[in-house]
Design a protein that fits this description.
With about 350 residues, the chain is an alpha+beta fold. It is built from 6 helices and 21 strands.
Length: about 350
């Protein structure tokens, strides 16, 4: 801790709340002027974090196959087009072979030209090639995979192919084993883009009626705050909890929130009103009394008991004890409190 200033306080003791400029900087003390500010009305409600369903993708094979190799695992961040696993399928092998034959037939007829063959034969060859390609696309093969097959020829028509990630996201589930036989449509991976998550706030019907679309919201979690916006409100009450779910989209690029966590949601309603308020961190508890430290000038600070009101958007209303225009400690109040308590305990 920074040393106290050498000026004497009461009973000849050093005043713990008299600091020189260096001590003020070291304690992180910042002073502000108390003034009225517009505080929006907020409704508090418990909520739970869920994956953004609009940014969640289920990865499943489109054809019956067997898993022959894993190329991504739980927790991995994958890029769009990145191979996730390798599959082997008899229907795919048949479609690969059919495409190679159809491609060769089309190349031969195309080289002869429509003048050397009938129009019907020319069209049939082209359609057969296109349908063979479309069948592989329907099985989940990308154009690059199909092109690689045609370059390698019949030796590559073994029914094996990689299942690719459709989007850049994080793997949040991978429920399968290598060697497992899977049906078409069986979910093997769940991918989630974590830049946005949903928080579902559980509100009383009366409070939910006060929430408007696009209302601003704050999510308190792990001692930090994330910003969000209301994107939907259920039009039915949960029969079990008798609450109305309100969905909030939250910016999660800091990776603060994860599905399954419980949080507190604060949703802004109305335009609010003007009130004298200080940052919540400026208020400390001394001897059971809510207190704000005021600046007496020349490095001297003093505790001032106040009557605190509700806290909204990080600001706490001061109802009594501190008039407008007072110079108060905006940040660093806990450092001053620690100094005062140490002095009372006789510590240096």
């Amino acid at each position: 801790m920074p040393t106290f200033a050498a000026e004497a306080g009461r009973a000849g003791e050093a005043d713990p709340l008299l600091l020189d400029a260096a001590a003020i900087r070291e304690a992180g003390i910042a002073v502000d002027t108390l003034a009225a500010r517009r505080l929006a009305d907020e409704i508090k409600a418990p909520g739970d974090v869920r994956a953004d369903a609009y940014s969640t993708v289920l990865v499943a094979p489109r054809v019956e196959a067997q898993v022959v190799g894993r190329m991504a695992k739980l927790g991995d961040e994958v890029k769009a087009g990145q191979p996730l696993l390798r599959l082997s399928s008899v229907p795919v092998a048949e479609a690969q072979g059919a495409l190679i034959v159809a491609e060769q037939d089309w190349q031969r007829i195309a080289a002869l030209g429509p003048q050397a063959v009938s129009g019907r034969r020319y069209a049939e060859a082209k359609v057969a090639r296109d349908q063979a390609r479309a069948k592989l696309r329907a099985y989940g093969l990308a154009d690059d995979q199909i092109a690689a097959l045609l370059r390698k020829g019949s030796a590559a028509a073994d029914g094996s192919f990689a299942l690719l990630a459709p989007v850049a996201a994080r793997v949040v589930s991978d429920d399968f084993l290598v060697g497992q036989r899977v049906e078409a449509g069986s979910t093997l991976f769940t991918l989630v883009e974590e830049g946005t998550v949903w928080v579902v706030a559980h509100m009383s019907p009366r409070d939910a009626e006060r929430v408007t679309g696009d209302a601003v919201a704050r999510i308190d979690a792990h001692g930090q705050v994330a910003s969000g916006k209301v994107i939907g409100r259920a039009h039915a009450t949960d029969e079990r909890t008798r609450t109305v779910p309100v969905r909030i989209a939250v910016d999660n690029r800091r990776d603060l929130l994860h599905p399954g966590e419980m949080v507190e949601a604060r949703i802004v309603t109305g335009s609010g009103d003007d009130a004298l308020a200080v940052p919540a961190e400026a208020i400390v508890l001394l001897q059971g009394q809510t207190t704000v430290f005021v600046d007496r000038g020349q490095g001297r600070f003093a505790p001032m008991a106040v009557l605190a009101g509700d806290t909204r958007d990080g600001w706490t209303v001061v109802r009594q004890g501190l008039p407008a225009g007072s110079r108060y400690v905006r940040s660093g109040a806990f450092a001053l409190k620690a100094r005062l308590l140490r002095s009372q305990l006789g510590e240096e």
